[in-house]
Write a structure and sequence with these properties.
The complex is a heterodimer of chains A (about 290) and B (about 250). By secondary structure, chain A is mostly helical. Chain A folds into 2 domains: about 55 residues, no CATH class; about 200 residues, MetI-like fold, CATH 1.10.3720.10. Chain A has 12 helices and no strands. Chain B contains 7 helices and 10 strands. Classes of the chains: A mainly alpha (about 290), B alpha/beta (about 250). The interface between A and B is large, with 36 and 44 residues. Bound molecules: adenosine-5'-triphosphate (ATP) and magnesium ion (MG). The site of magnesium ion has 4 residues of chain B, from α1. Adenosine-5'-triphosphate binds next to β2 and α1 of chain B.
Chain lengths: ~290, ~250
């Protein structure tokens, strides 16, 4: 934080406090390097890929050449997919197809569920009406809707987006609801003792206080969205990362299957980063927890 | 102070009783505070001082009896009340400056006034350099200073303070006690000041209410009729301080 520096400089006669930072730098020695975080990260990653490569080469898992692809084979396969089209789309086209479904479904769900969750927490009549329906549908796994949604909407985009909306709706709503419920009551007192109205309480306390919980819900929703899109694409699709995996399976190409899996992980990670960045922007006040 | 300068009653507490379930906390308390008076309240831990201020500011309902401000039932929406809580309470999503401004925003002051007042008040309590930090980046005593300045900033008619200076170091406490007194004289507001520090009570107030253990009643009332600025070593000051200390030998 740049402001901390200004605070540190020339403390006033009354505010004799400093908020500056001092970095604790000790001498570099072997023990420090061995226990360094980045060093350990590297060790674990390298060990993982070596073990993987060894397993694939030595064929201990059995299954002949189609059992497990080597890491480099996976990379090569992905490089091929970016050049050669699979069902009229390159790798990027498939990534975009899946991402588009996730973004559309996730946005629809968030746009409805977050305000609804806030309303439920703020108004007990809305709560009394929505809650029983919600509790009824909540335990149903979203993937169980795949067949019925294909019957209703066909195998196009709509059925996939529908599944995603169903899956992401629940955490979005629950987190918005709990975010408001768990606001510290003393903060309302600040508004009340100054003569604030209900509107002030909602705008200045409820909403900002529930932001972190809402964002936690969005993050959970996002990972569910990727699960849902994958499931829907595995069942029926002409494009998307799930389609690549299915093709890899049909063609007995483990490199393609694992490649698809890896790209899904990367894409899901990318969208998570976007939401994290948005949260940073909207909640600059949130305490950063070091090392997480 | 002269009785002629005591025209009106600001706060009238009539038979106030407060129970939490079976627990009787405030037991039929009645007293009044004149407009512009500075009253300190001392009492044992857990006797219901905070509870009293919470009922006065309508954060808690009274079980019985009522509190009138200017002759009408207390209501923060109507009366210009400011309350410094015992625990520092800042809105975590507002910077120091925005937190101090909050009271003025709620009361709908024009932005220009707010800015001018902010510069003055932040300087007064020594928060200028930390104005753009968030509450979780500053120490607890600085958070308490935010609460104090938020309360000062709205120029309240009625200022309630619940051990506001307990967290502060001695130097800052003396300084802010003087500031409080000068603010009180300038605005002619009414101040209710809760403290555990008897010296502080004698230093700032005109009258000290000594509360008993639960169920709480007013055990004694001590006038502090000393000229200002007050001197801690003044024999009369020391006498009053010792008198109050004797009164609160609760154990
Ligand atoms: N919300 C509540 N529910 C039940 N009991 C409560 C509640 N708030 C306070 N009490 C009880 O009322 C009594 C008075 O509490 P209060 O906080 O007013 O004390 P206090 O005089 O401010 O004490 P301190 O000097 O430690 O700040 C205590 O015994 C406390 O346990
Ligand atoms: Mg208290």
């Amino acid at each position: 934080m740049s402001q901390e520096a200004t605070c540190n400089a020339a403390s006033s006669s009354i505010a004799n406090e400093t908020v500056g930072q001092v970095v604790d730098r000790g001498p570099l020695n072997l023990a420090r390097i061995l226990t360094n975080r980045w060093f350990l990260h590297t060790v674990s990653i390298v060990a993982f890929f070596s073990l993987w490569d060894w397993l694939a080469r030595s064929n201990v898992l059995g299954g002949g050449s189609s059992a497990l692809a080597r890491p480099l084979e996976v990379l090569e396969q992905l490089a091929v997919l970016t050049r050669e089209e699979l069902a009229e789309l390159t790798l990027w086209g498939h990534v975009w197809a899946s991402t588009q479904r996730v973004v559309v479904g996730f946005s629809i769900a968030a746009a409805i569920a977050v305000p609804l969750g806030l309303f439920m927490a703020l108004n007990r009549y809305v709560n009394a009406i929505v809650k029983p329906l919600f509790d009824l549908l909540k335990p149903m796994p979203p993937i169980s809707w795949i067949s019925i949604s294909i019957l209703w909407f066909g195998i196009g985009e709509t059925s996939k987006v529908f599944i995603i909306v169903l899956g992401t709706f629940v955490p979005c709503l629950l987190n918005a609801y709990n975010g408001v419920r768990l606001v510290e009551p003393e903060l309302y007192d600040v508004v009340r003792m100054l003569g604030g109205r209900r509107r002030d309480e909602i705008l200045h306390v409820c909403f900002p206080a529930s932001f972190p919980a809402i964002f936690a819900g969005l993050q959970i929703s996002l990972s569910i969205a990727w699960t849902c899109v994958l499931a829907a694409e595995l069942v029926s699709a002409r494009s998307g990362l799930g389609y690549i995996i299915v093709q890899g399976m049909n063609l007995s190409q483990p490199a393609m299957v694992i490649g698809g899996m890896a790209v899904i992980a990367a894409a899901a990670w990318g969208t998570t980063l976007l939401v994290t960045a948005l949260e940073r922007k909207l909640c600059p006040w949130k305490r950063k927890i070091a090392g997480l | 102070m002269q009785d002629a300068a005591r025209p009106r009653t600001k706060i009238e507490v009539c038979n106030l009783t407060k129970r939490f379930g079976e627990l009787l906390v405030l037991d039929d308390i009645s007293f009044s505070v004149a407009e512009g008076e500075f009253v300190a309240i001392v009492g044992p831990t857990g006797c219901g001082k905070t509870t009293f201020l919470n009922t006065l500011s309508c954060l808690l309902p009274a079980s019985n009896g009522q509190i009138l401000i200017d002759g009408t039932p207390a209501n923060p929406k109507r009366h210009n009340i400011s309350y410094v809580f015992q625990e520092p309470t800042c809105l975590p999503w507002r910077t120091v400056r925005e937190n101090v401004a909050y009271g003025m925003e709620v009361k709908g002051r024009p932005q220009k006034d707010i800015d001018e007042r902010l510069d003055h008040i932040l300087n007064l309590v020594g928060l200028t350099q930390c104005a753009n930090l968030y509450p979780n980046q500053i120490s607890a005593s600085m958070q308490q200073r935010i609460a104090v300045s938020r309360a000062f900033a709205v120029d309240p008619d009625l200022l309630l303070m619940d051990e506001p200076y307990g967290q502060l170091d001695v130097k800052l406490r003396f300084y802010l006690e003087d500031e409080l007194v000068s603010l009180w004289r300038k605005l002619q507001s009414t101040v209710l000041f809760i403290t555990h520090n008897i010296e502080e009570a004698v230093y700032v107030s005109e009258r000290i209410l000594v509360l008993s253990n639960k169920p709480t009643r007013i055990k004694a009332e001590v006038k502090v009729d000393l000229p200002r600025p007050r001197d801690f070593m003044d024999p009369e000051f020391v006498r009053i301080r010792e008198h109050v200390t004797d009164l609160i030998r609760w154990w």
